[in-house]
Amino acid sequence: MPYADYKTFEKVLTRHADQPGSHTLDFYLGHGGYEGARKAVTQHTPDQIIDIVKASNLRGRGGAGFPCGLKWSFVPKGSAKPKYLVVNADESEPGTFKDRVLIERDPHAIIEGMLIAAYANGARISYIYIRGEFVKGYCRLVEAVKEAYQKGFLGQKIFGADFSLEVTVHRGAGAYICGEETGLLSSLEGQRGLPKIKPPFPAVEGLFRCPTVVNNVETIANLQHIILRGADWYRSIGPEKGPGPKLLCVSGHVNRPGTYEVPLGINLLDLIDDLAGGIWKGRKVKAVIPGGSSAKVLAAHELNLSMDFDTLAAAGTMLGSGGVIVMDETTDMVSALYNLMRFYHHESCGQCTPCREGTGWLEKIVGRIYHGRGRMEDLDLLLNICDQMVGKTICVLADAAAFPCESIVKKFRPEFEEMIRKGKGHERRVFPVAGGPLIQIGALSRHNQERREEQHPMKESALKRAPAPVGGLHD
Amino acid sequence: MANVTSAKKAQEPAKRLEFSPQAREKIAWLYTRYPTRQAALLPVLRIAEREFGGIGPAAIECVARELEISPGYVWGVFTFYTHYRRETDGKYILQVCSTLSCALRGCQEIVRHLSGKLGIQPGETTPDRRFTLKKVECLGSCDTAPVMQINDDYHENLTLEKLDQIIDRLP
Ligand SMILES: Cc1cc2nc3c(=O)[nH]c(=O)nc-3n(C[C@H](O)[C@H](O)[C@H](O)COP(=O)(O)O)c2cc1C
Ligand code: SF4
Ligand code: FES
Question: Which CATH class is domain B92-169?
Fold first, then answer.
């Protein structure tokens, strides 16, 4: 498949994101705002909308990449219970910061998408669950919802049709697991954010035990464009089975970290070398996590890949949330893994033994290797524990912890062995704080011009395997 | 979980707190937005956080009375989440992101610098109750790493100089 041409690609989701005032209703209406929702509500039946979204092959942007139209078709028809729409704005997967751009810069696009999703699924009450840390985003959403109510885009008789929608913005309070859809629903009900066993899936029995559609912010933001420009147009962007514009977040050791809107199917090397400005300090790449910290890591020689759902799945990893974390040749992989394992252990909700104990053991064992007390048997032990965690728990947080662990241990095993052999004598270095200019949110086009001077042509260099480790990510 | 109120303190009869009329109004509005009272728990805890300057046993008691659920349950929910302000927290909660993308760009140095400057370890509060230092997980701003959240505000692309300026300029 030819790679989609990211250079001629016209931005869709973030086309206005770098303009001042883009979050206000006035701006939004001045740029064709709410026309997609108007068209959906006044010219289509709910079933037609579901068919259009199915035909567009839109896949969820929250992590799992599940076909959006298919998920909607699971909502039971003719049930007497109320139906709910919940937008997942919890964005807490390490390496991911794309929803924040939409929330802060284009909140009305989210509300417009919600109108379409609610209309299609027969939902009349909806919630946006936003992570507690995003205070600015919360204020922007609350303000946007208020404006939308005032102008009649929310409430009763929207667009003069027999359609009503209530939107409430609900703030979380700091827990990664509340991004998992059933954990999110528990949290929204006023409980601890404990995930629930599926089935029943939320589409059948979700919020307050009623049918509930849960979609990610970015998924929702795509809807108006599909309605306005059609499923055929949408499918023409990138690979047909998982097409569309995609926000990819690049962080770590690159010259221009940021959020980039690209057509799905962009080559990972183009993303890193060209858009993100290459590896910093003239170094070589060592490893890349392509889809948020829960995705399996790619080694330097594996990066010539098309960034789309199916290609990354075939390469044994995933597009996930689109969080690309880049590590340069000086990165200590033991240390990087230790950092991630601490995260998953801290965030495990503790309901399932394989996850609660497993994440704890992984952290402890990687920690002892890191602290120079590792044993050679530990490496197989780690892989064994990972094996015991995958597919055995209520939610996939356990898998999300096992994937990076298993892949890093397998792909960088010599580095672990070396550290175990050297024991306490291993020399560690900590990364200094990076200098450089202030970048507010995301390297959208405006930021792309004004970044650091150095450009590092590295397409070939990226393919060369980088040398041995230094650098520690812990105290 | 560094400063969970000690068991001894929890046993003392908590002073009785009441929501102000303005807070009650907000809570009444919240009840209209959810089909159950309990669903308003997280937002009501946010209101309590503002009203009482942080959450402790007395605030928990007050929230529980308001929502007609047991204080034990409210405490259980409250402690599940990490982002509420506790009554034992300092005026400024310095939350330094310590997850991978920030670690790759030097957040350890930020923590060490703050720790040295303030004379406290992560999880501790200065004796004058001005600063609480915390290491937290990904703040969703990895492109501007290293990142720190002070109360409601993000501070991004931190350098040691910038850090000093930010801390010294806090009112
Ligand atoms: C541990 C865990 C954390 C998750 N965090 C998020 C998140 O922060 N944001 C999000 O949109 N989806 C997250 N998800 C995925 C959701 O469970 C769900 O699949 C998604 O919200 C569905 O929306 P979509 O179909 O539009 O992608 C997470 C999943 C897991 C297992
Ligand atoms: S897998 Fe982990 S996070 Fe998910 S429900 Fe089980 S214990 Fe909780
Ligand atoms: S890792 Fe620090 S903000 Fe994401």
Answer: alpha beta
Q: Is B126 an interface residue toward A (CB < 8 Å)?
A: no
Question: What φ, ψ does residue B131 adopt, rounded to 5°?
Answer: -125, 140
Which ligand 3 atom is nearest residue B141's CA?
Answer: 3
Inspect the interface and report whether the beta carbons of B36 and A189 lie closer than 8 Å. Answer: yes
Task: Give the residue numbers spanning the domain of A251.
Answer: 245-331+465-473
Name the CATH code of domain B14-80 (choices 1.10.10, 2.60.40, 3.20.20, 1.10.8): 1.10.10
What is the Cα–Cα distance from A218 to A249, expressed in whole angstroms? 13
Provide CB contacts within 8 A for A316, sequence distance 6+: A296, A407
> Does the beta-carbon distance from A189 to B76 stay under 8 Å?
no
A332-362 burial string, b = 16+ CB within 10 Å, else e?
bbbbbbbbbbbbbbbbbbebbebbbbbbbbb
**Residue B15's pLDDT is what?**
82
Q: What is the pLDDT of residue B9?
A: 52
The larger pLDDT score, comparing residue A395 to residue B9, is at A395
Residues near A359 by beta carbon (within 8 Å), at least 6 away in sequence? A341, A344, A345, A348, A389, A398, A401
Contacts of B109 in chain A (CB under 8 A): 430-433
Q: A258 and A126: one domain?
A: no
Given the DSSP bridges, would you call strands A212-216 and A84-89 parallel, antiparallel or unpaired? parallel
* Residues A307-344 pLDDT 10s: 999 999 999 999 999 999 999 999 999 999 999 999 99
Q: B143 and chain A: CB distance < 8 Å anywhere?
A: yes
Give the integer Cα–Cα distance in Å for A347 and B45.
21
Which residues in chain A are contacts of B106 at CB distance < 8 A? 430-434
Q: Is the pLDDT of residue A194 over 60?
A: yes
Q: Does residue B164 belong to the interface with chain A, where contact is any CB pair within 8 Å?
A: no
Question: Is A92 in Cβ contact with B157 (below 8 Å)?
Answer: no
Rg from Cα positions in chain B? 18
Contacts of A195 (CB under 8 A, 6+ apart): A177, A180, A182, A183, A186, A349, A351, A394, A395, A397
- ipTM surpasses cut 0.90: yes
Average pLDDT, chain A: 90
The residue of B27, B31, B36, B104 whose CB has the most chain A CBs within 10 angstroms, and thus the best one to mutate to test that interface, is B104
CA distance A180 to chain B (A): 15
What CATH number does residue A391 fall under?
1.20.1440.230
